[in-house]
């Protein structure tokens, strides 16, 4: 008996698979192909395609690609431990559990971490189709890419002969009653500062200032929900409190600044180590109390668990470039920059500050810019790059710059998918363009004539420790997918 997709999802969750570290899950996919006597191909980026012949009698139908990505945004709750040690995304598994809400709907969530239903559940469905010889389908290519969540380098590097099919079912959407027909473009860039340090003379006290407990979330899907980006909030507090009339920092010195967990997530925490003169120490405590009050008022609804703490710490060398870095962060745009005028509640252009890290020689800041308008995306990303350079960045590395994608409205695959939803679930899905990035733009450019229908179960709060998936909608998407494959098989070329 073939394994169902929930059983396969359980297997996938035992394999660590954060972006840039997909070797183990790629091994699993190749072993899966061998186990089921299926042809496969693996490229230098660890992208894998597994091919299955058409059901007997349907060999003349056009081949279909089922698309997913194998990496996940792996974040953990602050202080979450495994066997007494901090959670390690490179070695620890994901531990899902199922619960029923007060409306009787079944959900799956993970213990202490993000779940990885984005996109592990879609991948599990694709593997279940490969393993089930009772289904009717055309020839299938299950394509699974790497690093979708942090640069899309896997899709970008695919060779032009890696897939043959031109009809693509993408199982990477997050609202089961919708078909994604468009996705924003994205530019991911990282500014890098060379750091020099100096030790302060006597007369300074040292404090660790933290803000954490933010809801975080997907930097595209959740960017319009008014959530606190803790990196931005901390930087603005330091700048507006300590910049003098000449725009210079006074009374406080930066020793380190860290925050955020993933480039594609809204930063749910940030931490600064500060050197403060004896004269200004009490003033800092007063200012932090005022900041607590302001944060509580501003984010009482969106981030009710935010916490700000100030504690004394050991002395540490200070960053000579600290004032410029704080001013840069305070100047960087964050959040929604423009809404679409042709689609209600749809963001046109946004920017997120994802992570900041301080080492003993370098500081890095990442920004994830998204837009449906490539001119606006380029203008905003160029502005961010120039701000970083103006405030002393050695370089700004552009890790991704992908176009927006819109499926053509007369797509036969799109029409068939809508009819299948109507016949199987009793409703026609809404066609939406989403403010997240899909790999579709790469495929449209690389594989002429391609059509893409993007569907998936209801996933709430992806890229966060609150991530959860509705199992009832997952069951429904499974039914739609296998029926869609049957209908595609019956469409003889």
Task: Produce the secondary structure layout.
Layout: H1 5-13, H2 23-35, E1 39-42, E2 48-52, E3 64-69, E4 81-82, E5 85-86, E6 96-100, E7 106-110, H3 117-131, E8 140-145, H4 153-157, E9 167-170, E10 178-183, E11 185-194, E12 197-198, E13 204-212, H5 230-242, E14 252-259, E15 270-277, H6 281-299, E16 307-312, E17 318-319, H7 322-331, E18 335-339, E19 347-358, E20 362-371, H8 374-390, E21 395-402, E22 405-406, H9 412-425, E23 430-434, H10 440-446, E24 451-454, E25 459-460, E26 468-470, H11 471-490
Parallel strand pairs: 3-8, 3-9, 9-24, 10-23
Antiparallel strand pairs: 1-2, 2-8, 4-5, 6-7, 7-26, 10-22, 11-20, 11-21, 12-17, 13-15, 13-16, 14-15, 18-19, 19-20, 25-26
Helix pairs in contact: 1-3, 5-7, 9-11
Please describe what this structure looks like:
The protein is built from eleven helices and 26 strands. The protein has about 500 residues and is α+β, with helices and mostly antiparallel strands. Strand 19 and strand 20 form a beta hairpin. The protein is elongated. The model has no long low-confidence stretch (mean pLDDT about 95).
Distance between the termini: 32 Å
Question: Largest sheet at a glance?
Answer: 6 strands, mixed
Numbering strands along the chain, what is their spatial order in the largest sheet? 1-2-8-3-9-24
Q: Helix tally? A: 11
Would you report the number of β strands? 26
Residues in β-strands, percent? 25-35%
- The overall pLDDT, averaged over residues, is 94
Low-confidence parts lasting 5 or more residues at pLDDT below 50?
none
The Rg value, from CA coordinates, equals 24 Å
Quaternary form: single chain
């Amino acid at each position: 008996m073939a394994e169902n997709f929930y059983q396969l999802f359980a297997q996938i969750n035992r394999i660590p698979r954060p972006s840039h570290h997909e070797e183990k899950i790629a091994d699993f996919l190749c072993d899966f192909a061998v186990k089921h006597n299926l042809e496969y191909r693996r490229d230098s980026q660890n992208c894998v395609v597994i091919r299955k012949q058409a059901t007997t009698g349907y060999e003349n139908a056009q081949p279909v690609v089922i698309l997913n990505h194998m990496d996940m945004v792996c974040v953990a709750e602050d202080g979450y431990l495994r066997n007494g040690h901090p959670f390690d995304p490179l070695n620890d598994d994901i531990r899902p559990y199922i619960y029923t809400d007060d409306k009787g709907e079944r959900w799956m969530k993970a213990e202490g971490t993000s779940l990885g239903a984005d996109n592990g559940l879609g991948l599990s469905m694709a593997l279940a189709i490969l393993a089930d010889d009772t289904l009717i389908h055309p020839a299938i290519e299950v394509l699974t890419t790497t690093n979708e969540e942090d640069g899309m380098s896997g899709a970008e590097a695919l060779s032009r002969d890696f897939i043959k099919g031109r009809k693509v079912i993408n199982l990477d959407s997050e609202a089961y009653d919708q078909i994604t027909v468009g996705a924003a473009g994205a530019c991911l860039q990282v500014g890098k500062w060379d750091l020099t340090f100096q030790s302060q003379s006597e007369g300074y006290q040292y404090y660790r200032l933290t803000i954490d407990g933010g809801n975080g979330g997907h930097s595209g899907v959740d960017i319009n929900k008014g959530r606190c980006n803790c990196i931005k909030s901390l930087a603005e507090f330091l700048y507006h409190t300590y910049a003098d009339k000449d725009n210079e920092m006074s009374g406080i010195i930066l020793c380190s600044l860290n925050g955020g967990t993933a480039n594609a997530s809204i930063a749910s925490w940030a931490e600064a180590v500060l050197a403060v003169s004896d004269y200004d120490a009490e003033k800092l405590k007063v200012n932090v109390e005022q900041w607590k009050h302001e944060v509580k008022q501003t984010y009482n609804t969106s981030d009710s668990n935010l916490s700000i703490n100030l504690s004394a710490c050991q002395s540490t060398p200070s960053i000579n470039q600290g004032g410029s870095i704080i001013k840069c962060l305070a100047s960087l745009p964050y959040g929604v920059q423009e809404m679409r005028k042709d689609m209600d509640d749809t963001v046109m252009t946004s920017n997120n500050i994802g992570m900041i890290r301080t080492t003993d020689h370098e500081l890095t800041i990442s920004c994830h810019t998204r837009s449906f308008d490539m001119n606006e995306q380029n203008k905003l990303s160029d502005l961010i790059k120039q701000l970083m350079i103006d405030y002393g960045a050695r370089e700004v590395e552009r890790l991704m710059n992908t176009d927006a994608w819109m499926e053509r409205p007369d797509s036969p695959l799109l029409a068939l998918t809508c009819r299948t939803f109507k016949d199987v679930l009793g409703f026609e899905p809404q066609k939406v363009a989403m403010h997240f990035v899909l790999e579709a733009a790469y495929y449209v450019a690389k594989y002429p004539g391609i059509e893409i229908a993007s569907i998936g179960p209801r996933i709430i709060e992806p890229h966060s420790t609150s991530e959860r998936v509705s199992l009832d909608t997952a069951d429904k998407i499974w039914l739609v997918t296998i029926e869609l494959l049957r209908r595609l098989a019956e469409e003889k070329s």
